[in-house]
Amino acid sequence: MSGSRIYMDWNATAPLSSDARSACLSALDLIGNPSSVHGEGRAVRTLIENARRDVAGLCGAKAASVIFTSGATEAANLVLTPDFRMGRTPLKIGKLYASAIEHPAVREGGRFPREALSEIPVTSAGVVDLHALRELLAAHDRALGLPMVAVMLVNNETGIIQPVAAIAEIVRTVGGILVVDAVQAAGRTPLAIEDLGADFLILSSHKIGGPKGAGALVARGEVMMPAPLIRGGGQEKGHRSGTENPVAIAGFAAAARKVGVDVAARMAPITALRDSLEREMQAAAADVVIHGRDVSRVGNTIFFTLPGLKAETGQIAFDLEGVALSAGSACSSGKVGRSHVLTAMGYDPRQGALRISIGETTSEAEIERCAAAFAKVAARRRMPGQAA
Ligand code: PLP
Known about the structure:
Elements: E1 6-7, H1 18-28, H2 39-58, E2 66-69, H3 72-79, E3 83-86, E4 89-99, H4 104-107, E5 117-120, H5 130-138, E6 146-152, H6 164-173, E7 177-181, H7 193-196, E8 200-204, E9 215-219, E10 224-226, H8 246-259, H9 263-284, E11 289-290, E12 301-305, H10 311-320, E13 323-324, E14 326-327, E15 329-330, E16 336-337, H11 340-344, E17 354-357, H12 364-380
Parallel strand pairs: 1-13, 4-5, 4-6, 6-7, 7-8
Antiparallel strand pairs: 2-9, 3-4, 3-10, 8-9, 11-12, 12-17, 14-17, 15-16
Helix pairs in contact: 1-8, 2-8, 5-6, 9-12
């Protein structure tokens, strides 16, 4: 990236951290297959098992409960299935209740058939509606199997922190399974699988400064597990076959070690920068709407709507000013889709919203330049009633 550009899209992918980069580079030179019993194989096996401990440490889990995958999407597809096992006994999951603001990786429902999917609404503040969840679960037909609930700890668009411990309490009363997408929470808010009361957590390497193409499904225990998604040689204790990717896993672990410690202290300067940018944005355009400002949010995200500026247009305008940010939910095609999160919160999604997301290496100078770009874009927008 040219020195004159500023990257403010950390929720889409965080830049590779220097620790992760070095870990990836050294892993590249290991030649063994981790399943081989010779010294070369054992060296890679050691790297992977150490990495498993690091990733477990990020979320207070046991190393044995971490299953490495190719990313969060695969982890979601592994765990979101009607077919579970409790030890050797098959366990049927009847329905998946996923919140309306889940990332498509979860919202698509994994291996559940469409008719087994049910949506949990959110309030206009962007928080999962606990009352609605209680009602949905009370009406759950247990003859179909157990209920599974999937919610994210932190929303990728708004940065809003969801009340997962309270959700866990509700799920527990009906004997359901709770899956928590912690992709955007890792490193940004304290993350402990026990405290959250989650049965499974989903993690992604590239959102925390690791390389793309690695992630994990983390279980609270080891007894209740989903049927494998990828079958073959039985790696990852049979939960995910295929030779592990030591390079990506090493980078993921290095990133996890870095972001997992002292989260509050690490986030404090980032939050201060975010807050100062929000103040400057409001000074430049008093009508800017910052979504989720009144509820608990992670400190790196600003999700905003500027009246009179369509998200697609805004994204291009910022890009031309040298600022990389996101509009709505960027799909794989690069097309800007209407934000299902805004829709779920009851906003008219046609205008959309823009997302600024920052991180560890964001500087004060970059915040200043972003604020200046914002002021320029805000001044140029076409206000309602103005001629084209
Ligand atoms: N869940 C959330 C909340 C995300 O933000 C993302 C990535 O955008 C994913 C899941 C998917 O992660 P991955 O790219 O590792 O498949």
